[in-house]
Hints:
By secondary structure, the protein is an alpha+beta fold. The protein is built from two helices and four strands, in the order H-H-E-E-E-E.
Amino acid sequence: xxxxxxxxxxxxxxxxxxxxxxxxxxxxxxxxxxxxxxxxxxxxxxxxxxxxxxxxxxxxxxxxxxxxxxxxxxxxxxxxxxxxxxxxxxxxxxxxxxxxx
Length: 101
């Protein structure tokens, strides 16, 4: 149908275009990852200088008044009553000793 040179050029173009597009996607994602906006979004929130320094370290209290969870950065953790390891608030089983919380 086409001349052999045109067939060869078309085959070569069809085989190289996906590779070039993939490499362009990777480069574009790297540039987005290194953007200052992303770095600000991923960075932890800074505490204002007027804030109480002990506010993040204060224990949370259950209804009965027992200290059950502590604030670790932004995540709330629950201490295991058996081994004292910190676990996520939603955990039912301790990750360290595998006992029920």
